[in-house]
Write a structure and sequence with these properties.
Length: 388
């Protein structure tokens, strides 16, 4: 019998009470902040986009002037408040901690504040609200045709198992330890993947660097014929051939305009990004069709393109853009065809090693997260106490 089972057997062998969220927390609705008053500094406005799955995302923060504190003083968040998204991807939760800047709650985000620390460990509630069951219940309860909306009245009535505080504390301790170990493993795996990628780039660049007397410099325009893709919009007809835009597949089409070749992002945020498109495919205007010329190996040509810093080339102007002239004039070196084929095979094999790790590591991370979620949900499943 483990520690949790011992505590349950001792403190609540007949089951635990299920209480509504409104019985154990006070619920705070958000304030309708005016976006035209946002400022570079001030109090941080917690919006639905900032509430991610288990954490607050600070990558796109908005601030409200301190001098307008009278407007939002009743909506300031406190340490250990749980915030819940009520619109869009409903049911996502995050918790405010000592590292969270001074913040106020925006509309369509709710905050749950502990009413009695002797009855509820707020981190126990946080763990429970991260379970798959809660997310499913939120999705089922949400309404709205354009986007999902969750009612605060429904949230207030939502039932939570509330075991004795000793049980809650032990569960939080276990899950926090499990979570820390998971984070450490994830960091190790990501560091390993990054190291392998750097190793591949180093080896690729070495293999594609030649003595200029043996392999005189030429231009990319000598190796490739470049042509912008077709159509300013993505075809909607569907079909057997994948559609490539500026950064990968964006649909399917019944026509094709390229085959077994790289596609370079042409304009916008993905200008200079390179994707290899296998088989017949259709390239939109947002992509550049790269047709290998006679006497050059397609896979060698692809790796040669990957060696170039086309992203930097695209960002030379105010609007990211890759032109024919820029591409054609890039200086490269290409040995004779037999050597190209050898290099293409070698770099394909190296790339596959990195790709296999890229596939394997996320799979390992996913397996670990599922293991954590299974264990968490099992720990947070309780027999309900029958009414007296």
């Amino acid at each position: 019998m483990n520690r949790i089972e011992e505590l349950i057997e001792k403190l609540c062998p007949e089951g635990v009470p299920f209480l509504t969220i409104s019985e154990i927390t006070s619920l705070l609705n958000g304030f309708s902040f005016k976006s035209n008053k946002y400022s570079p500094t001030g109090v941080m406005v917690v919006r639905i986009t900032n509430v991610q799955d288990g954490y607050l995302d600070y990558s796109d923060m908005k601030y409200y002037p301190i001098e307008l504190a009278s407007e939002y003083k009743n909506y300031l968040l406190e340490n250990e408040d749980i915030v819940v998204s009520l619109t869009g991807n409903v049911g996502r939760v995050a918790i405010v901690d000592e590292n969270t800047p001074k913040s106020a709650l925006n509309q369509r985000v709710a905050a749950l504040r502990n009413l009695d620390k002797n009855i509820l460990n707020i981190r126990f509630l946080f763990c429970y609200l991260k379970t798959n069951n809660f997310k499913i219940d939120c999705d089922l309860a949400a309404n709205g045709s354009a986007q999902s909306n969750l009612s605060t009245e429904w949230l207030k009535r939502y039932l939570i198992p509330v075991p004795p505080i000793e049980v809650q504390n032990e569960i939080v301790k276990i899950l926090d330890t499990f979570s820390e170990l998971e984070a450490e493993l994830e960091a190790e795996l990501e560091a390993e993947l990054e190291a392998r990628k750097k190793q591949y780039v180093f080896l690729r660049d070495q293999v594609l660097t030649f003595d200029e007397e043996e392999v005189p410099p030429s231009n990319l325009g000598d190796i490739y014929e470049f042509q912008y893709g077709k159509g300013n919009t993505i075809p909607k007809t569907g079909g057997d051939y994948p559609i490539y835009g500026s950064n990968g597949i964006v649909g399917s089409h019944h026509e094709f305009n390229s085959e077994d070749s790289p596609v370079i992002g042409h304009i916008g945020a993905y200008a200079g990004i390179i994707n290899w498109a296998s088989g017949k495919h259709f390239v939109t205007y947002n992509g550049v069709i790269c047709t290998i010329k006679e006497g050059y190996d397609p896979r060698f040509g692809y790796h040669l393109l990957m060696k170039q810093n086309l992203r930097e080339l695209a960002n030379e102007g105010s609007q990211p853009f890759v032109s024919y002239d820029k591409l054609k004039s890039v200086k490269v070196q290409a040995p004779l065809l037999p050597r190209q084929i050898e290099i293409g095979i070698l770099l394909d094999n190296l790339d596959k090693l990195v790709s296999d790790i890229s596939i394997g590591l996320p799979a390992e991370l996913t397996a670990r997260r599922k293991q954590y979620e299974y264990y968490r949900d099992k720990l947070l499943t309780f027999k309900e106490l029958e009414p007296a």
